[in-house]
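USER: Please consider what follows.
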Amino acid sequence: MIKEKIKNCLEENIALWQLETNSLPKINFDQYTYETSNLYVGKPDTEGRIQWHYAPANRVLDFSKLEMEYHVALPQDLKDYYNAYFFLELNGFIDDECISFEPLDQIDDVLENLEFFISGEEDEKFGTTDFIILGTYGHKYPFGISKTGNGQVVAIMEEDKEYVLAKSLCELFARLKIANPRLGWYSVLTSMEQKQDNSDSFIGGKPRISANIPLPVCKVCGEPLTFFFQLAFPKGHIWEGKSLAFFFCTSTYYKHDAQEWFPPRLLANDKADVPIEALDSDSYQTLFRVYFFDTKDGVLRQDYHEKVMYQRIDWKAGRRRDKKVPIILAGEPIWMDSFQRECPKSCGGKNLELVLQIADYFNFEKYPDAPPEIRRSFQPRKENNYTLFCDFNRIFLWGIDDKEKPVFGINVQSDM
C-alpha cells in the first residue's frame, strides 16, 4: 500500500514541475552523484541544476539480521519505503509546514545507515540517537520514526520535544501535500552610479518615493533615518506594481538605550493573531520606517543626502534556499540555527506573509563622506559600512496580504 502512495507523491512532484517549468524536477548538480547515480536526465543547465527522474528500487533489502542483532522490530511500512523507489528530492507540506525527505538512491547503503541510528551513535547534524531520520520538518527539525516506538512519524522540536506528524509512514504519504518551496525572487546586485541607472529596485543612493512622503526621522533619538533600500515588486508577485522603501536609524548604538535597539518582538506562537494596532506604523516603527506606494508615483528625492552606496538590484525568480543571497523577496524563511520559526499566523485576522529577508553578515557599504556608524563602545566602526539592526543578524519583514494598506512587522535573529 505504501509503495502506491509514494509513487503517487513522486508523480505529483513531476506534474508540478512540468506545470511550472515545463521540465522534470531539478536539483543542484553534483559531480560525484552524477557519475554514480542513474536518476539524472540530460546535462546541467546554465544555473548548475539538472533534471532527474525517480526509479523503482532494483533490489530488495533484508532487514532481519539487523533486527535480530539489535533486538528491534522495524515497522513494515518503513521497510517497504526503503524497497520502493529511488528519488533525489521530495518536498511537500504536512499541517501547513514544509517537509523534505532525504534523497534515497541506489548508491546509499541503507542498512549501514540504519545500523548507525539503531546502534545509538549520535548524529553529527541533528544530535539525536533515538530515532531513524528520514528528513527535515519546517526546514530545520529532524523527523523520522522512533526506533523504540510504535511506528509513529515524529519531528524533534525545541528542547527535544516530539511532535507527532502521522501515526505511520503510510499515513504521512497519504496526507503529504506535494509542493515545491514557495517561489521567491533573489537579488542580484550591481555597483554603479545612480545617475546612470533608472531602476526601481536598488540599495542606497537617493530614494525614489512619492513626493508627498516625508523623509522620516527616528522616533527614539530624533535623528534623520538613513535610506537603506527600495524594492519594486516583480511581475507575478501579489504586490506587482507596488514598491517598498526601507529607512533605519544609524545612530542606534549610541543614542538609544539597549532595549530600543530592536523593534518589539513578534510572538513566536504560530497560531497567534496580532492585534492590528500592535503593528500600527506610527507606534511600532520607531527606529525604522517602511513606505509602501505605487511604483509609478516614485520620484527621485533630491532633498535627501545619500549615505549608503548605490547598487542596482535585479531579481531572479527561483525556489532554492540560499542564505547568502543579500535580499530575498517572498519565498521560504531561512531560520537561523539557534532559533525556531518566529512569526504569528495573522494580524487583525489577515494572514502574515513573508515580504523579504536580509542575509546575516550582509552589511551596507557607505559613501566616504557619510558619517560612521558608532559602536556600543561609542567608538566609530572601522568598516566602511552600516549594519541593519546590529551585526550578524538575519532580518525578516512580514506583512499582511493587503494590496492597499498592508501593515508590517519585523523579526531579527542572530546566532551570535
Q: What stands out?
A: The CA atoms of residues 246 and 290 lie 5 Å apart. DSSP finds eight helices and 28 strands in the chain. The longest helix spans residues 2-21. Residues 2-178 form a domain with the SMI1/KNR4-like fold (CATH 3.40.1580.20).
